[in-house]
Amino acid sequence: MKAERRSFLKKVGVGAAALTAGLASKAVPAFAKKTIRWKMVTTWPPHFPVLGEGADLFAKWVDEMSGGRLKITVYGGGELVPPLGVFDAVSQGTVQMGHGAAYYWAGKSPATQFFAAVPFGFNAQSMNAWILNGGGMKLWEEVYAPFNVKPFLAGNTGVQMGGWFNKEIKSINDIKGLKMRIPGLGGKVIAKAGGNAVLVAGGEIYTNLDRGVIDATEWVGPYHDLKMGFYKAAKYYYYPGWHEPGTALEAIVNKKAWESLPKDLQAIVDAAAYKSNMWMISEFESKNNAALVELIEKHHVKLRQFPESVLKSLKKLSKEVLDDLAAKDPMSKKVYEHFKKFQKNIYAWNKLTEEQYQKFKYL
Ligand code: CA
To answer: Cα(26) to centroid of ligand 1, in Å?
Structure first.
């Protein structure tokens, strides 16, 4: 009996080994076994919490899924190219990949902003629906195509906070003369409201706020803002982040580098982006509230809600900013029309689902 069993196992073993050898030689061509090395430059400081971590994890997952066949070395902003030089480096093929947010490239094409954040636009769930399954990706690819760059959705912050202010905002008039660090379309809205929207690199915001060079700043949300230490420089923390209701992060790949990858590695890069997208929103959403409690209880931050009248005014101004943009740039018009149509469609559905569900709160 024992001998029989051993002989059976031996046969199975040999069979399996032969089968594996057969598969190895037939299914994986010799060229695909060699290690491909890519460089990924990012707009974040090295290993920056959540955002930079997302880029690091992306590389780790690609390595694991490909059995080490595609190795991506991640560089923080300034290590290889400046943070805002990422798009150019990928476009020119100096590096194969980049990681950042599409609104940083508004100077290349204003339509890029739709694929990061639109004031009073999509939340994370609607952004995913629009880009991944609602036709948004085709437009995003079209916007990046002249630069030989292929975009991937690779993260989302969720609804951001309205920002840190050194005075209370009680009416839209309080925005007048306010010097605020706020990028992108949100900055244009603040400027329309009479404020002074300035761009300050992430690493310099705290000092600017502390020294009174700026009166206010927006950033991300409690988990990340706590790490940035803004509570030491401004005491009013406003919600909601009307200007960034679900900011998307991106991974970008040089077209030539992408086309040189075998199909299975292309699928792995695509899968790592999907995983990254889900990981990032989950990381923010799972940790934001505990950080907010710490900000309020330990650091005595004063939490404030923007008055409804202020939000209504900002919404009206946001529409004007978007209409202006569409009137000036044909590609922005094309994307905005698609965006608006999708927004109308998904909000009609959300009215019956998300909105009704919210009324019941919790168990
Ligand atoms: Ca922000």
So the answer is: 50
The mean per-residue pLDDT over the stretch 7-26 comes to: 47
CA distances in angstroms from 261 to 75, 106, 285, 331, listed in the order given:
21, 29, 34, 30
Q: Is the peptide bond before 330 cis (omega within 30 degrees of 0)?
A: no
> Could you say which of 259, 285, 311 is where a domain stops?
285
CA of 186 to the centre of ligand 1 (A): 9
Are the C-beta atoms of 156 and 248 separated by less than 8 Å? yes
Count of domains for the chain: 2
SS3 39: strand
State in Å: Cα 157 to ligand 1 middle.
9
Gap from CA of 117 to ligand 1 centroid (Å): 9
Residue with tokens 């915001």: 205
Residues facing residue 75 across a β-bridge? 41
CB atoms within 10 A of CB 187: 22
Domain that holds residue 337: 163-243+287-355
pTM more than 0.85: yes
Over 90: is that where the pLDDT of 16 sits? no
The pLDDT score that the predictor gives to residue 361 is 76
